[in-house]
Amino acid sequence: MDIDLTYSGLAALGAGLAVIGAGLGIGKIGGSAMESIARQPEASEKIQNAMIIAAALIEGAALFGIVTALLAVFK
Prior knowledge:
Residues 11-71 form the V-ATPase proteolipid subunit C-like domain. The chain has helices at 3-39, 44-73. By secondary structure, the chain is mainly alpha-helical. It has one domain (7-70): Up-down Bundle (F1FO ATP Synthase).
């Protein structure tokens, strides 16, 4: 088995896991935010701001994982 093929496969697996993790994280944040807004509508602006910041941090971490995996493939 060629060692480059193994690294490419592992890098693709890592990129896929980063995307799945980001999707699960953002879904959890969105669901919790909607539940919080339903319980306390007067705090919706604060909840939305916190949700957007958390989602952006998760997206940044996922993008970092994908770029790292792509760098491993195309080194």
